[in-house]
């Protein structure tokens, strides 16, 4: 399911969409841990 959505966004933007969320996800999960 997650991979499917990522594929959809990747196709929509035409570039590695996982790079942006990853950048904001790392500092975001630090306080959450």
Mean pLDDT: 57
Major sheet description: none
Strand content: under 5%
What class do helices, strands and sheet pairing give?
A: mainly alpha
Poorly predicted segments:
none
Spatial separation of the terminal alpha carbons: 24 Å
Order of helices and strands: HH
**Rg for CA atoms:** 11 Å
Count of DSSP E strands? 0
Please report the number of helical segments: 2
CA-based shape: elongated
Region (Disordered): 1-20
Biased composition (Polar residues): 1-15
Please give the structural blueprint.
Layout: H1 2-13, H2 19-32
Describe the 3D structure.
The chain is mainly alpha-helical and 33 residues long. 79% of the residues lie in helices and 0% in strands. It contains two helices and no strands. The longest helix is centred in the C-terminal third of the chain and has 14 residues, at 19-32. It is elongated, with a radius of gyration of 11 Å. The chain starts with a helix and ends with a helix. 0% of the residues are buried. The mean pLDDT is 57. Residues 1-15 have a biased composition (Polar residues). Residues 1-20 are annotated as: Disordered.
Put the structure in a nutshell.
By secondary structure, this protein is an all-alpha fold.
List keywords for this structure.
mainly alpha; 0% strand; 79% helix; 2 helices; 33 residues
